[in-house]
Amino acid sequence: MGDSRSTRSTVHGDVAARRRIARDWRHRLPSSRAVVGGILVALAGAGVFVVHRQASRPPTTRYVVAARAVAMGDTLHAEDLGTITVELPRGVTAVPGDEATGLVGRVAATPLDELDLLRPGDVLEPGRFADPSSVEVSLELPPARALQGIIRSGSVVDVLSTDPDGEGTVVLASSVRVTSVSDRSEDGGIGASGAVRVRVSVPGTQAAAQLVDAAVRSDITLVLPRPTDEGTT
């Protein structure tokens, strides 16, 4: 009998000890509400709102996020980008994860914080401001002198200036990149000039000032140089 009571006492003692340990662990571990809340806070800080249509079906679509803070005007590198799997509400657009590689080398159009979801407007078109010292100048040219239908965004051109009262034509800039081409005649309305608006990237404000001055005082013509292995047109 003594042995039986001793055994029961030992068993009850072990059970009580296990319950105390379990109680202690429950107090130490965060609750499921706290864990979910932490996840939602992190995602909300990235501007991402997760909508679960079905609790049993997790999101499967990946989108690009900033892996670290990026200043406006900085060139994006591979280590600046990451992806996250979320489900976005209707009307919210973001760059799909499989397009992350295409963002490398492009320039941030707005400041990005760590875990910010990248929207299409957060990065500039390829080739824009790839050179940190470059500035852009917009020119309105007649279609023939703007090489309408030949040049496009990314083309490399030479810029010539012809002064009617001067000694002929001079080269203002060589191998400048076209960052945008638009036909102003598409705007329609009274006063539509039919001119082509060409935006070019030039190396610095001094070159931009020369180009602007020449555009006012002379006739500007774009010339398409011979393609080379180093550049594209």
Could you characterize what this model shows?
- Mean pLDDT is 75; it is low at 24-55 and 185-192.
- Strand 4 (156-163) and strand 5 form a beta hairpin.
- The chain has helices at 2-28, 32-45, 205-217, and strands spanning 62-66, 81-85, 135-141, 156-163, 168-183, 196-202, 219-223.
- The chain starts with a helix and ends in a 10-residue tail after the last strand.
- The chain folds into 2 domains: 31-124, Alpha-Beta Complex (Type Iii Antifreeze Protein Isoform Hplc 12), CATH 3.90.1210; 135-223, no CATH class.
- The protein is an alpha+beta fold.
- It contains 3 helices and 7 strands; from the N terminus they run ααββββββαβ.
- Strands 3-6-5-4-7 form a 5-stranded antiparallel beta sheet, covered by helices on one side.
- It is elongated.
- Helices cover 23% and strands 23% of the residues.
What's this model, at a glance?
Helices cover 23% and strands 23% of the residues. The protein contains 3 helices and 7 strands.
Question: Secondary-structure blueprint of this entry?
Answer:
Layout: H1 2-28, H2 32-45, E1 62-66, E2 81-85, E3 135-141, E4 156-163, E5 168-183, E6 196-202, H3 205-217, E7 219-223
Antiparallel strand pairs: 1-2, 3-6, 4-5, 4-7, 5-6
Question: Could you say what the CATH topology of the largest domain is called?
Answer: Type Iii Antifreeze Protein Isoform Hplc 12
Order of helices and strands: HHEEEEEEHE
Instruction: Calculate the terminal CA-CA distance, rounded to whole Å.
Output: 100 Å
Biggest pleated sheet: 5 strands, antiparallel
| Unreliable stretches covering 5 or more consecutive residues | 24-55, 185-192
Tell me, what is the CATH class of the largest domain? Answer: Alpha Beta
Mean pLDDT: 75
Number of helices: 3
Task: Count the domains.
Answer: 2
Strand order of the largest sheet: 3-6-5-4-7
CATH 2nd-level architecture of the largest domain: Alpha-Beta Complex
Structural class: alpha+beta
